[in-house]
Structures are given as C-alpha cells and as structure tokens.
Design brief:
54% of the residues lie in helices and 11% in strands. By secondary structure, the protein is an alpha/beta fold. The chain has two domains: 164 residues, Alpha Horseshoe (Serine Threonine Protein Phosphatase 5, Tetratricopeptide repeat), CATH 1.25.40; 247 residues, 3-Layer(aba) Sandwich (Rossmann fold), CATH 3.40.50. A seven-stranded mixed sheet has the order 5-4-3-6-7-11-10, sandwiched between helices. A two-stranded antiparallel ribbon has the order 1-2. Helix 2 packs antiparallel against helix 3. The termini are far apart. The relative contact order is 0.07.
Length: 555
Amino acid sequence: MDDKWIQPPIVCDHLTKGKLLFDTKEYSFAIASFRACLDNLPAKPIINEDGDIIYTVDEIVLSTRLFILRALWKQTLLDSTTTYTDTTLDEVKAILKILTTTTECRSVLCMLAVSTIARIINGDVLYKGESVLSTKDISNMGIQACRIILDESYGNIKERRILYSIECDLYERRQGDLQSAAKSIESLLKESPKVQSQQKRLRELHIQLGLIDVVEEKAKKEASRQHKKRQRMKKKEKDSSKLDSILDTLQSDVSATLSRSPTYNFFEGLDNSQKSREKATIIDWSCIPDDIQPKFENKSKEKRLLRKRNQLESLYILLSGLVEKVSTTKESGRPIHIVDFGSGSGNSCLVFAFLLLQKKDIPCRFTLIDNNPHSVKLGKLRTNKVGLDSSVQWLCQDVSNFHESFDIGLATHLCGGATDSMMERCLLHKAAFIATPCCLGSIVFNAHENVVSQAKPGRGYGWNTNKRTSLTYPRSACFRDQITVDNYAIITRLADCSLTTGQSDNELHIKGKRFLDSDRLRLAQEANYDTSFGQLGSKIDCGPRSDVLCGICKA
C-alpha cells in the first residue's frame, strides 16, 4: 500500500499518543492506544464555540478504526500469521459496517476509508497468511468497499478510476470472474473513455472471454489494409495520369523559369570548383575549429559526413559569390547581414561565419534563427567556444516572425512551407537567397481557405508547425492562373522524393519537383529578381537532396 497515507483527523489524546507510537514503529502499543480511544469515545459530537459540529460520533469511530487498521496492516506486513491476518480482516469488517450503515460521515472520510481497504485487500499479504476466510470472502470485502463509492457519485475521476481498476483486479485475480472484471472496466471507460491502458485491458479480457476472435480480427485488418492500399494505388494512378498532362502543358514555363540567369551566374564558382574537386577540397577542414565542424559519433556514418562536407563546400562557394556581389551595392561601411533560417545548432552557418569573418575584406554579421530552444542553446555554446559572439546573433523564434532587414537569406534543407516563409522574408527585404528545399510532402493545404500549415506538429527547423500561415499557393501569379490548389497539393505529395533522373518509373516525380522549384523561382522573378536553379553537386557527392534555388534582387 502507498506509504503516502492521508491520515484521518486526530480527535483525542489517545489518538495523539497512538500516532507517536505508530511513527516510531511500535505498532502493538499504538494499537492498544487506539483501542483505548474507542473505549473512551465521547457520547456526543465534537462542536466548536459557535455550536457547529466539527466531527460526528461516527466520524470519530471511523477515524480511530482507520488508525487501528493502518497499524494492523503494518504488523501483518511484518508477520502474516493467522492472528494478524484475521485481526486485520476483523477491522476491515468493522469499518465496512460503519460505511454501509452510517449517514453521518463526510464523503472525504468515506473515500479515505474505502481507498485504504481496497488497497489492503488488493495486496498479496492477506492471501498468504492462514485465515479462516477464503480468498473469495476476502476479495468480496474489497469489492464491497469499492462499491460503496462507485455506486454513489463520490470521489474525483482519478480516485474512481483507481477503485474501478482495483475492483477489476479482485474479480480477475482473486475470483477468476472475467465477466465481472470486464464490466468494471466498461464502467470505468464510460466515465473516462480515453484511458488507453484500460481500453487495452478490456480488449484482453474480451479475448479471454471469447468475445473477440483474434485470428478473424487480424484477417479483417489485413483485408482492410490491402483494400486501402489498392485504393491508394488507384488514386495515385488517376492523379498521376491527370497531373502528367497538366505538367506537360506547363513544361515550357517550367524550363524557362529554371534556366540560369543570363545577368548573373550564381554557379560560376561552383562549376569551376566541381571540375577540380577530386584534386583538392574547397575548405581546409583541418583549420576549422572542432567545436563547429559537422560530425557524427557513429563511425558507420562517415559517408554521410563526407556528403555534409561536400554540401557545405558547395554552399560556401555560392555564398561567397553572393557576398562579393552584394558588397558592391550595399552602403559603405555597413556589414553584410546574413540570416540562416532554421539553423539548428549551426552545423552549416557557423562554418561559413568562421571562414567569411577570417577574410576581413568584406565585413559580415550573422543571425541564426531556430524555434528549438535546445538547438539555440547548443548553438550559442558552440559560438562562444570559437569566439564568434561579437558577429553571430542567435534568435529562438519562428521564421515568419523575423522582421529585421538583411542582405542574404540561407535555408539549408528547411522543411516544407518553411522554405516559402523564408523566401517571403527575403523578397520583402529585397535580400538575396540560397535555398535547398526538402520535405515537400509536409505541406498540407486547405483548398477552401487557400492557406497552408505543416503536417507534423512539433518539428523544429525554425518553423512554427502548430500555426497556419497566410502563404498563397501556387506561389507565383503565373502558375496560379494555370493550376488549382487541389492539383498543387497533389503535386507536393507526388514531388516529395529524392530520386534521380534516368529512372523511367520516376520521371513524373521529377517533373512535379521541378514544377514546385520553378513556382518558387517564378515568384521571385515576378518580384524583380534574377534567379537560377542548380545542384550542389552529384547525388553521390552531396546526397539526393542537392537541388538549390538562388536569387538576387535586380534593383
């Protein structure tokens, strides 16, 4: 039984003395003191100065017997002989008699008495001792105690759940009455229908009673699963056929949008470096402080580490080129403000900050944004360790809540609609951008309201996944006139892939992905941006998600 026992009120000196003896584990003397209290009970209720009743006679008797029961229980735990077991059960009977006959005990005290009895009866000790009563007789006392409360409207939800559970235990474990045990849980679930543990327990009881055929149930579930799978395949084939024709009609616009800007070649430095990548790396990783280097503790992920480094080297070339371009148009003396949206703990941007700040020819400052407090805390610690505090600012907030002006926006694998939110910030402040989109399928649309929200609440990446945003889809006016929101939503699911061209079965997925990329870039073009689409490198060198979107404002 729980040692955090709520004690009944102490109404006389004998109870005070017995309580002191109980606390010092002198249980026999404590019981004697409590019994002396029973022999000297007041004949009238205890009242206060105003004549109001504080405790009725029945409440005094019940309180005293609860002290005796508690002391006897402790003795029984120490020595479960016939004497202590039967004496404990006699006291339980006496308390049950009071509870079933009196109307002058407050519900709180009745609840305490019932809870104490139910827990004692549900324990194993009384059944191990040699008692004149049978297991069924003993368990019936506990069931009777539970019913005193459950048949009335006493107790809060939590207390009643405990008593229902104990009643079920007594029926199932002590009496083998599975049907009555199931009824107890059914009554519990009527009052608290969302208790999953008890739903599972009721199911197990129904299986034992033969009310559920597990084999038949499993067969039905499998049939249902196969049916749903067939329906999904049919829908997918129907959607694919429909979208294939739609995407074919848009292909010329998509190709034109994804073509590289004739005004500014974002990928010039990257193209040149990729030709010599086998001879030398772009970043000398031995010079990068260990605290900000991308790393994986598991040695089996060395291939992933190499991919990450290749990605960062390619992104650094793109970023360096943009920094040089932006520096020619910004106000003299003002550092270039670079913002990394959904930065995590800084695995990407802290390396860029370290390298660009070492150059010193173009002053820069950095703001890293993420809505995961743990990532921001870790990022601040890493920043401090490498001495970048004066140039790197950390913000724990949502991407869409950032309103400061800036010059260049970064988004490295920013999930779903968060990339669109980042681009919206960039276009608002006429900032250049570099984005590597991913998780397109995590965008969920409401076709009637034409708004978007994330599919997976609680994910980080600097994106508030619990709120809707007012982003309109399709993003660009050009494609908004040519495709419905419903079809756009289907394309996001279709395009959520990391496949390569050349796989005939997956060409439609590639088309869908290219369309979504072009829609984002077309929005920037409509805002007077030069844009380009490309790859950080090959799928082998940089991983399957290596597509990159770049843009810079013409004005």
